[in-house]
């Protein structure tokens, strides 16, 4: 099962990486460069999402109204 193409592809998608990476390691179906790549991509995506969340939080902390998707994107893309 871990040799399936879907499992290989989904193991590179950050939300699925922790579970599928350990499954593939336990079954011995993964090379060292895939482990390094997947962990690196997971770390990079975590850092990017942390900065995005901090930016949105900083701009909406005192806003008691709901934030629409349009407002969300404008807050995210607006330069300080």
From TrEMBL:
It is a multi-pass membrane protein. Residues 2-54 form the ABC-2 type transporter transmembrane domain. Keywords: Membrane, Transmembrane, Transmembrane helix. This is ABC-2 type transporter transmembrane domain-containing protein. It is found in: Membrane. It holds the Pfam family ABC2_membrane_3. It comes from the Bacteria. The chain crosses the membrane at residues 12-33, 39-57.
